[in-house]
Amino acid sequence: SHRRGPRADMVPEIAAAVGFVSGLLRTRGCVSEQQLQVFSGALREALTEHYKHHWFPEKPFKGSGYRCIRINHKMDPIISKAASQIGLSLPQLYQLLPSELTLWVDPYEVSYRIGEDGSICVLYEAAAAKAPSSYGMLTCKNQMMLGRTSPSKNYIMTVSS
Predict the structure, then answer these.
(1) Which of 29, 72, 125, 154 has the most CB atoms around it within 10 Å of its CB?
(2) What Pfam families does the database record attribute to this sequence (predicted)?
């Protein structure tokens, strides 16, 4: 079948989100590669199911809140369900993952923020969604659109040097 216009599948976006969460678990080194594969598969399936009727490539931000994965001192149920398949308990998850994490999985763009006032970083961006952007894959989005101000990127770089 030749689909024209926006693609309907959410494979790359979900892959980016799953890869990001698995990567956070991997950095702590207490989860085996085999467990990570099971976790990734479970999370991918859960997200695909969860997003199925809430994915609007023609209106990428519609349903964004519903698709948002959130940990704010309370574990996102989708993550805890996938983690339970590899025997990770909630207390373990809280140790392995940031206590404040928001992951937005929208058509053409997946981004995340760690900490309530952190910068938003883009994990995945589809070229087709908009004109070529001036920033690369992992730079942080301007936060003015979120109604909160944060220091400019250059400022952050000089401070952290």
Answers:
(1) 125
(2) BTG
